[in-house]
């Protein structure tokens, strides 16, 4: 494992952080984590040098924090830095700050969270929490020892990102970043801005939620011709940058944990080879020619009041329009196989999902396009 520093905090943190948002599940049910396998994966990661874990209140409907708490029993807790996040959408009044943190400590089975982040800061949630006095409350929680360092995770445009960076003496921020998101959300501009100010920048969605791990069609041909592995190359592209503190990966199988630890062990600033830089340039160009919906399957839009499985609909849609041919036929069949209430055609245009999407996708407007393509 390679270790890196976290901005002005310094320290020695593994280049690869474990993102506990995509744990293995039973029968495809997101809330039903395959606990024995997840715990084995987490402990294997710690035993092989990973010392940073990221979770949050809503992941796996609360099971992520609980299962991570179980994995950290038996002395594992002391070997890692533990990060979780305050969910603003669960806050109605300032008293909820304490209620939520105490609930998280109980779920995580510990009395101290090392990194406490405000979750999913965007135009709606930042002013909401700030005006409710969140910064004073965070300092109080740090004073009484329940939390350590203070940060925020971010999904909005770079101007708001800079405003939040400048609003407080944060230790860390967490941004969505990968070779397809250089100009999306905080982007490269935000990465450099926060890093210059001494913040640790933790990268999330390094594979765009897994999309970059499964290239098809012409993109697959580019990777094959290069002889490079698309996952390893995408991760190395991030570790190559001095401004990136560490990269979180949401690993959903033991093999992915092994592969990504091996990648992290080979990582380093300024080590990306010309061949990899050129291959990524060609892939960026090719993806740039396809107009897909930028859904990362984070599932913040769920549950839909009508029952539509929004991320699945976008996944089928994107795959169909990106690759066409048999992929289109296959995904039309998969769409037809969904229960009727889960298909895009069941959307009632209530627009609740639009507000929740961290990518600002106009979900409700796109549902009819999805049904036209797949239905
Ligand atoms: N604060 C926020 O707002 C927020 C939002 C998003 C994420 N996060 C955090 O950031 C973490 C990382 O983001 P992410 O989970 O979206 O990461 P990601 O790396 O972009 O996507 C993870 C997915 O990539 C695929 N993958 C990972 N390693 C692979 C490998 N070696 N080979 C093949 N496929 C591989 C898997 O897809 P399959 O499951 O399809 O195999 C996995 O589920 C999350 O787990 C979470 O802790 C935070």
CATH superfamily of the largest domain: NADP-dependent oxidoreductase domain
Radius of gyration: 20 Å
Q: Averaging pLDDT over every residue, what do you get? A: 94
Overall number of domains: 2
- List cofactors, ions and other ligands: NADP nicotinamide-adenine-dinucleotide phosphate
Oligomer description: single chain
Number of helices: 15
**Order of SSEs, N→C?**
EEEHEHEHEHHEHEHEHHEHHHHHH
How much β-strand is present in the residues? Answer: 5-15%
The largest sheet, given as strand count, sense and whether it forms a barrel, is:
8 strands, parallel, barrel
CATH class of the largest domain: Alpha Beta
From the spread of the alpha carbons, the general shape counts as globular
Number of strands: 10
Give helix % range. Answer: 40-55%
Helical/strand content category: alpha/beta
Cα end-to-end separation:
47 Å
Summarize the structure.
This protein has helices spanning 35-47, 63-71, 95-108, 125-131, 134-143, 158-167, 187-196, 217-226, 230-239, 254-265, 274-288, 310-323, 325-337, 352-356, 363-374, and strands at residues 3-6, 10-14, 16-19, 52-54, 81-86, 113-121, 147-154, 172-176, 200-204, 246-249.
Secondary structure blueprint with pairings:
Layout: E1 3-6, E2 10-14, E3 16-19, H1 35-47, E4 52-54, H2 63-71, E5 81-86, H3 95-108, E6 113-121, H4 125-131, H5 134-143, E7 147-154, H6 158-167, E8 172-176, H7 187-196, E9 200-204, H8 217-226, H9 230-239, E10 246-249, H10 254-265, H11 274-288, H12 310-323, H13 325-337, H14 352-356, H15 363-374
Parallel strand pairs: 3-4, 3-10, 4-5, 5-6, 6-7, 7-8, 8-9, 9-10
Antiparallel strand pairs: 1-2
Helix pairs in contact: 1-2, 1-10, 2-3, 6-7, 8-11, 9-10, 12-13, 12-15
Bound molecules: NADP nicotinamide-adenine-dinucleotide phosphate (NAP).
NADP nicotinamide-adenine-dinucleotide phosphate binds next to strand 6, strand 10 and helix 10.
